[in-house]
Design brief:
304 residues; alpha+beta; 6-stranded antiparallel beta sheet; 8 helices; 12 strands; 21% strand
Length: 304
Amino acid sequence: MTDAEQNWPSLPLEAWEPTRATLHMWTQIVGKVRLALSPYLNHWWQVPLYVSARGLTTSAMPYKEQALEIEFDFIDHVLSLRKSDGTRRALRLEPKTVAAFYAEVMATLQAMNIDVKIWTMPMEIEAPIAFDKDVVHSSYDPDQAARFWRVLLSIDAVLKEFRGRFIGKASPVHFFWGSFDLAVTRFSGRRAPPMPNADLITREGYSHEVSSVGWWAGDASVPHPAFYAYASPEPAGFAKAPLRPAAAFYDTKLSQFQLSYDAVRTSLSPRAALLDFCQSTYEAAATLADWNRKELERDATVTR
């Protein structure tokens, strides 16, 4: 296997869908623990997970006078729970139902003297099943899970590089467990028109003008891993803006730009192809919406 194949492996949705569906529910359980313990941040930035050197982590969450971190370790295939007093627990990541995983996580937190309650209904999926009732999803293929993490690791590095070109307000590169995607968002600094018919989460998430780019593993609407980019509110002419690389296109049904993951990973330079997609879609949003780009963008010749 070449370095490119190792860092940007193939991830066909049909090959790992059972594991993906189960892992989606597991990350929602852990993500809701973070939601319950972390102080509120604008645009709900207290809820995502982050790519780590071993998998996905909550980062440190405050609890009374201590801190708790929970990490999906896709090297040793354990869920690692660590407290700042040195207490550690590890749960095996292996085939088990969502209900069993939920019971293990909550029992382990209780044993670590962490008292937390979460809403047991999954979010942002069709036909949700409460975590403590879900005996449908129970697959875990360690090779596929590790492959998924390696994809995230490579994409995370490029999105962080792209984020570093911007000196305006920008989100961290974070993994949203609700929609199961990795994303970074830039802000113009201006308020967006209100969204009176949107729910509370959406209104807060899009309270300001944004240009966002990210990656998801695929779902029923897009049955393959893909990169996406959108602007909110979308400026006139956005759909017809020039894009790079050539394989990128505007999806009228989803109102966003898309680029298949396979087109990036098989290119001569996946990093360059992804940066081109990030930059060209941002330029479409920022130029057409008349962002103050001179004040928001870093001089590319300055490296420190």
